[in-house]
Amino acid sequence: MSFKHSFIIGVTRLRKEPGSMVSFDLTGQLSDLKVSSSYVEDIELIAVVGIAESVHGGILITGIIRTIWKGECRRCLGLASGAMEIPVRELYERVESGMGAISDGDTYPYSGDVIDLSEMVKDQVLLGLPLAPLCTEECKGLCVSCGAELNKGLCGCDNEAIDLRWGALDVLTDEDR
Fold first, then answer.
1. Nearest C-alpha neighbor of 117 from the set 52, 44, 42
2. What is the rounded distance in angstroms from the CA atom of residue 130 to the CA atom of residue 139?
3. 96: confidence class by pLDDT, cuts 50, 70, 90
4. Does 106 have pLDDT greater than 90?
5. Cα separation of 15 and 58, whole Å?
6. Whose CA is closest to 128, among 32, 35, 24, 29?
7. Which of 52, 86, 88, 160 is the most exposed place for a label (fewest CB within 10 A)?
8. Domain shared by 147 and 112, yes or no
9. Which whole number is the average pLDDT over 32-49?
10. What's the average model confidence in pLDDT over 22-39?
11. Looking at the structure, do residues 80 and 15 belong to the same domain, yes or no?
12. Phi/psi of residue 116, each to 5°?
């Protein structure tokens, strides 16, 4: 199964009939989807479902992007993963052939009778990836003394370690008793 042109939709009818709409349901793969501690594997499928609508300023894409992300838990350093469901609403403006992609950053350019959604999908997935993922909300993390994973049980360390900078004040508490 080839995913080289997975996120391309034809817009010939949309360009000829202002106000018209076309539904799409696309699935493909993209590479290099990674932020600090989370990523989407290159082999992971990305689904994009939505509507392309001819509007005054160009073609409006409205829909949802779905995929699975993985990463390293910020507390226990174990595997974290989850499903992403990202709502999108982006405008594609037509640029004439040979003029290059002129854009102010608020819209995506297109030329011809097709729109390639790959760049928009990539941008949205990267923005949706968690910067500090958790394996679970209840993750207990690692022991600060010995590094044992506390999700598997207690480590046996003396959790009331004394900070030596405050050690001189311990005399005061002993005298007060």
1. 52
2. 16
3. confident
4. no
5. 8
6. 35
7. 160
8. no
9. 95
10. 95
11. yes
12. -95, 115
Cβ–Cβ under 8 Å, residues 118 and 29: no
Closest CA to 109 of 49, 98, 46, 50: 98
Weakest-pLDDT range from 1-5, 43-47, 112-116, 142-146: 1-5
Q: How many helices (H) and strands (E) does the chain have?
A: 3, 9
- For the ranges 7-21, 122-136, 140-154, the maximum mean pLDDT occurs at 122-136
Domain count, the chain: 2
pTM: 0.80
> For residue 84, what are the domain limits?
8-128
- For residues 86 and 160, membership in a common domain is answered with no
Residue pointed to by tokens 């046996």: 156
Predicted pLDDT of residue 164: 74
Cβ–Cβ < 8 Å for 13, 22? yes
What string of DSSP letters covers 37-93? SEEE-TTS-EEEEEEEEEETTEEEEEEEEEEEEEEE-TTT-SEEEEEEEEEEEEEEE
Q: Are 117 and 48 in contact (CB under 8 A)?
A: yes
